[in-house]
Structure formats: structure tokens, C-alpha cells
Specification:
With about 450 residues, the protein is an alpha/beta fold. Helices cover about 40% and strands about 15% of the residues. It folds into two domains: about 200 residues, P-loop containing nucleotide triphosphate hydrolases (Rossmann fold); about 210 residues, Phosphoglycerate mutase-like (Rossmann fold, 3-Layer(aba) Sandwich), CATH 3.40.50. The longest helix is centred in the N-terminal third of the chain and has 23 residues. It is elongated and about 75 Å long. The two termini are about 45 Å apart. The protein binds 2,6-di-O-phosphono-beta-D-fructofuranose. The site of 2,6-di-O-phosphono-beta-D-fructofuranose (FDP) has 15 residues, from helix 8 and helix 14.
């Protein structure tokens, strides 16, 4: 029986090691899906890494033309096989250092290649989850081709039109040999998820354990329609003014000004005719901040968006916490992500309770979230791939609207300042200052 360990984020990792094997033709969004899966797992503190076979192939063949990918080209075949072997060897070595989910990002488009990955992983006690991305939506394929020719090192410095044509030729070489995972034949015993036009239709086969089902559930919720997520803290509260944490206070006069200005900031960023859904916490200061937004925006309150619960320290200033609970104050500074307030929560706890929010965000289109400093840090860390140990120290200023737009290779960020003064609620390590100026590295 494998021993059960809990990584503290509600995930039972039963000594599990999973290789997620991407499958599909070029330009089907495989790398994007791989990148999102890795980001999600890392956000949950599950060690995850992606091994992109193309990067290994580039060592040997940096800018090959489409003929390289002709399956009748023995030299190309040999080099591509060597690249796959090097990627898998590195992945196995990484598993030995404590890796839990390794993502093998390649086309893995033939049955032979999939069998080889399956046999190799199985021989090392690693489970295999195939994730196949199929797409017949011409618009999505074209967008991916455009993306590749703009961003891939394979075509750096080349004429964009010639690059696009070459990439299409490469795709047709793969089309000649590509076989979808076929449950009716010899691949019936494989564990797999097939995504058709990301988010439209899914097929799931033989999911074996909890972590696999978590990954599958996340990937099922993804879509690739364009959208943005807007984040804002509530307007300055009466507690923010007096340097007290937690509570359920109303807004200060300057916080009220922000609430009145927010519709204008949102209009400037979102536009007039785009439908927007607004999520707030259940606390008065976020609800008050969102109350002047247009009535046709659907508004929802989520308990999961409430501020980090500071337990016995709720309503105290940092100085009072240091005086009454000096050991706790020091312990929090030592490891702010994991420190749990007496009778309250840690940042790690907040991440666990935010998981349904992340899942719902992935399923949704445009959303504006009005929430709190700690919660916003956790959500921001998810989108911007911030190190969890550092995220609790990030400065998230009041009276600022943040727009995040997921793109194929990362999330784009734009900030809109309301230009309404507010206190700083940022606090550096060791400090008990009521309103401290953030240091450059916290920005
Ligand atoms: O984790 P730290 O840095 O203490 O920040 C979280 C704190 O931020 C505050 C402001 O200081 O949130 P909020 O924006 O909801 O007012 C506190 O209520 C909360 O305890």
C-alpha cells in the first residue's frame, strides 16, 4: 500500500508520480494547456514541471524546415527520437528528486511513441495520463499558427509569411502519421483525457486516482475564448485608516470616493457594451465598493472571497499583535505563507478555499473581483505564477484596478489608478508601522 501524505493543500499525494503526456497535432494549444496545468499545480504547492521536447530538439536542429518533420526523413526521425529520449531521461531524473507531476510536452502523435512513453514510465513506477487536444476550429488553429510564427525560436528572424507556410507544411507531415488515441483498439487500457476544441467536449478514460482526477477536472474547465479578469481591493476602510486588520468595517470617506470612481475606471478598461460579472466577498467593505457599478452587471457574493481570517488577532494593529503574541508575530514573519493565526487561517488555507473560485474563473468569461489584500495576493499569484513564499509580501495598493488577460505564453497586466489617495496597508518584515511605504522589491 502506498503511504499517504498530505501536502497541506487538501491534496492526498499517495507517493504518486504522474507523467502527463500531451498528444496532438502542432498548433492545437498543447503547450498552452501544459503551461496552465503546471501553473495550477504549482499554485497548489504540488511539484510540477514541463519537459518540452521541442526545446531538446532545438539543441540539435535549431531552425529546421518542414522536411525535417517528414517521417520518411531518417535523419529527422533519429534526431526527434533522440530529443524525446533526452526529455524523458531528464524527467525521470526530476521525478527522483521529488517531482510529482511531470508534463511531457510534444505531439506524441503515433501509437509507437505513446507505447514507448507508457512502457518507460511504467517501468519506473510512474503513472501516465495522456491529454490529447483535438481541434478543428480553423480560427483557433490560425491563431495558434500566428502565435507560433511570432514567438517560436524555430522561426526567429524569418519572414512571417514564409514561416507560417513552413509551419503549415510541418503540420501536414504530422497529419500523415497522426493517430488519435483509440479506445477501441490497443490503447483502451490507457488513462486519458481527450479535449475537443478546448472546453467544448471531453472524453475521459480510466482515471485511476485522486490527483489524476484533480488534473482532469481542472483541464475540463478550461476554455480559450478571449477574456480578462479585473481585480480590485475594496476602497480604503475605517480599519485601514487606523492600521487594524480584519474586521467588517465600512469605507472611509476616501474609500467612498473610490467606490464612486470605480464605475468610470471599469468603463475605461472594459468598455460600454461588454457584459461583466462582479464578484465580491460577503464583507461590508467590498459590497460597498461595488455598489455603484451599473445595475446590468450581475453581482455575486462569495464567502470564499472573504479576507484571510486573523483569528484572535482580528481587529488588532500589528503593534498590538506583537505586544500580545510576540512569538506568533515572529513566527508569521518567519514563514508568512504557512503561518496560521490562532483560531484563524494561513495564506495556504486561503489558497485551498480559493480553489473553487479559480475553477469558476477558468470556466467564465469577463469577471471583476472586488476583494481583500490577502485574497487578492493569492489570486494574483495564480495568474502571474508568483512564488508562494513571496506572494504574501506583495504590495497590492488600494484604489487601483488591475486588468489581467491570459495569453498563450503568460498573463498580460494593466493597472488603472484612481488617483484617490489612500493609506498603505503594506508591511515589511519585522515592522509594526501603521502605514509603511512599500520597498521596490514588493511591487
Ligand atoms: O497578510 P497581511 O500582510 O497581514 O495582510 C492581510 C491584511 O490586509 C488587510 C489590510 O491590512 O486586509 P483588507 O484589505 O481587507 O483591509 C487586513 O484586514 C488583513 O488582515
Amino acid at each position: 500500500m502506498p503511504s499517504k501524505t498530505n501536502n497541506g493543500v487538501g491534496v492526498q499525494v499517495e507517493d504518486t508520480k504522474i507523467c502527463v503526456v500531451m498528444v496532438g497535432l502542432p498548433a492545437r494549444g498543447k503547450s498552452y494547456i501544459a503551461q496552465l496545468a503546471q501553473r495550477y499545480l504549482q499554485w497548489l504547492s504540488i511539484p510540477a514541471a514541463t519537459f518540452n521536447v521541442g526545446n531538446y530538439r532545438r539543441n540539435d536542429a535549431p531552425q529546421p524546415t518542414a522536411d525535417f518533420f517528414d517521417f520518411n526523413n531518417p535523419e529527422g526521425e533519429r534526431k526527434r527520437r533522440a530529443a524525446a529520449e533526452a526529455a524523458v531521461a531528464d524527467m525521470l531524473a526530476w521525478f527522483r528528486t521529488g517531482g510529482v507531476v511531470g508534463i511531457l510536452d510534444a505531439t506524441n502523435s503515433t501509437k509507437e511513441r505513446r507505447k514507448w512513453v507508457m512502457d518507460t514510465c511504467t517501468a519506473h513506477g510512474i503513472e501516465v495520463l495522456f491529454v490529447e487536444s483535438k481541434c478543428d476550429d480553423e480560427e483557433v488553429i490560425m491563431a495558434n499558427i500566428r502565435d507560433v510564427k511570432l514567438t517560436s525560436p524555430d522561426y526567429r528572424g524569418q519572414d512571417p509569411e514564409a514561416a507560417a507556410q513552413d509551419f503549415r507544411n510541418r503540420i501536414s507531415h504530422y497529419e500523415k502519421v497522426y493517430k488519435t488515441i483509440n479506445a477501441d483498439e490497443d490503447e483502451d487500457n490507457y488513462t486519458y483525457l481527450k479535449l475537443m476544441n478546448v472546453g467544448k467536449q471531453v472524453i475521459i478514460n480510466r482515471i485511476q486516482d485522486y490527483l489524476q482526477s484533480r488534473i482532469v477536472y481542472y483541464l475540463m474547465n478550461l476554455h480559450i475564448r478571449p477574456r480578462s479578469v479585473w481585480l480590485s481591493r475594496h476602497g480604503e476602510s475605517l480599519y485601514n485608516l487606523s492600521g487594524r486588520i480584519g474586521g467588517d468595517m465600512l469605507l472611509s470617506p476616501r474609500g467612498e470616493l473610490y467606490a464612486k470612481k470605480l464605475p468610470e475606471l471599469v468603463r475605461e478598461s472594459v468598455g460600454d457594451d461588454r457584459p461583466l460579472t462582479v464578484w465580491t466577498s460577503t464583507l461590508k467593505r467590498t459590497i460597498a465598493t461595488a455598489r455603484f457599478l451599473p445595475p446590468h452587471y450581475n453581482q455575486l457574493q462569495w464567502k470564499a472571497l472573504d479576507e484571510l481570517d486573523s483569528g484572535v488577532c482580528d481587529g488588532l494593529t500589528y503593534q498590538e499583535i506583537k505586544d500580545r503574541y510576540p512569538e506568533d508575530f515572529a513566527a508569521r514573519d518567519e514563514d508568512k505563507y504557512n503561518y496560521r493565526y490562532r483560531g484563524g487561517e494561513s495564506y495556504r488555507d486561503v489558497v485551498i478555499r480559493l480553489e473553487p473560485i479559480i475553477m469558476e474563473l477558468e470556466r467564465s468569461e469577463d469577471i471583476l473581483i472586488v476583494t481583500h489584500q490577502a485574497v487578492l495576493r493569492c489570486i494574483y499569484a495564480y495568474f502571474m505564477k508568483k512564488d508562494q513564499a513571496k506572494s504574501p509580501w506583495m504590495n497590492v495598493p488600494l484604489h487601483t484596478l488591475i486588468k489581467l488577460t491570459p495569453r498563450a505564453y503568460g498573463t498580460e497586466e494593466v493597472r488603472y489608478e484612481a488617483h484617490i489617495p489612500a493609506v498603505s496597508t503594506w508591511r515589511g518584515k519585522g515592522s509594526t508601522a501603521k502605514h509603511e511605504n512599500p520597498t521596490p522589491e514588493s511591487l
